[in-house]
Design brief:
508 residues; alpha+beta; FAD/NAD(P)-binding domain; 2 domains; 7-stranded mixed β-sheet; 22 strands; 38% helix; globular
Length: 508
Amino acid sequence: MDIKKVVIVGGGTAGWLAANHLGKALFNTENVSVTLIESPDIPTIGVGEGTVPAIKKSLQSFGISESEFIAQCDVTFKQSIKFSNWLDQDNHGKGNFFHHLFDMPSPMGEDLTPLWLSKQGHDYASCVSPQFTACEALKAPKKITTPEYAGSLGYAYHLNAAKFAKLLAKNGREKFHVEHVIANVSEVKLNDSGAVSSLVTDTHGELKFDLYIDCTGFESLIIDKALKVPFVDKSKQLLVDRALVVQVPTDVNESIPPFTLATAHQAGWIWDIALPNRRGVGFVYSTKYMDDKTAIKKLDKYLGGGLSDFNYRFLPMKVGYREKFWHQNCICLGLAQGFLEPLEATSILLTDFAAGYIANRFPKSVAKMEDIQTQFNQVMKYAWERVVEFIKLHYCLSDRTDSQFWIDNRDPKTIPDELARKLSLWETYVPNREDFFSKFEVFDLENYLYVLYGMKYKTQVDALTDEQMSLANKQSLHLAEIGKQLTEELPEHRELLNKIKEHGLQSI
């Protein structure tokens, strides 16, 4: 039987990313339709979303103008995640920080990590990339004359998730003819073999499709409630389980950081994402180590008081992922697939990755589905496990001792085996490309370098020869000069955003 009718259940960022990926891939396929069913009663969860650079490729492939995207979705540029106080204040100073930059480290050829290891007197990112200086100066990654989706420095975005979903919805409907149905799904019917046969809705009756994509968020209406696919719990490795979130208005003349600020506290960390008119702030913590009242007091202190003047809410976080991501004729994406806390913006990243993978390997018939399904499940499990390891890296490398939360995060029983193996290897060898052998690495060599050595990991390496030291010093100093030059040439972040909204960028 051919697969002719595809349905995406659930809107939001996940649903409409999937709709655009599939709509584009299947647009010229005869007699194949893509429908998205969206409830009128379920709001978007996002409170200020962060992305990673890979999202640019998807947006460009959908034919979305970067200028339109920036103007309509309250977008700001994101060049880094700045981690503050993730290390012990007595050992590294109050307000210690490091950058996980989006530009490649050591771009001039020589790996400058051994040079930094021989000195360790300054920030790793400032040694290996000119982007550090531009970020600290709050500069934009490009000029108004730079074409869309190009930049002098690597970047992603911060955005208003609700407005982003609306832009994706408009694009999917108009460019790729995705049918948009507003309805609540009241029942999922299964056939005798256990596959989904139809959906019962409140406004459109019973609807039948060939392939069902579950984007219903934490509710996981199809993959969990109907198909009973088990959940793989990762709470023993990643200890945070709740977020207290709030949106705080900002002055339209205030400087906008071109990075996500991630500030560690006694039992977790705080995200702080600046959009043009507001900040999305989330206090992420573990209820085992901190109660809700203390969390409220801590967030109020972080904001300088006045938390009670805003609408704040608690978000429970069930940390883990589905045992299968594709079961029978149902694929889950977004929060229905899993959630591993907001650190490093992994939610949109994994959704975009998975939706693109399905679009590129879309099964034309039920007979072809099994092979693709098996491979998809293997790839996504590999990707999720690598993300677990990368997030855990931030916690287990911390030398903070001010609470049991940080001490327990260094307990070997909480560290994934593969991460422990790599950390043991990296005690005597600087990571290299061969340590990340799969094309499905979600976080690669450069990501690990910035976090490992941003957190002062002590790899013991042989001393550099005089010739090696001279060459490395020369390249590092040259990168510093490039950083100064970029800081002089690039516009202030808010200034560029205002110009883009007024004039737009050059289309490619």
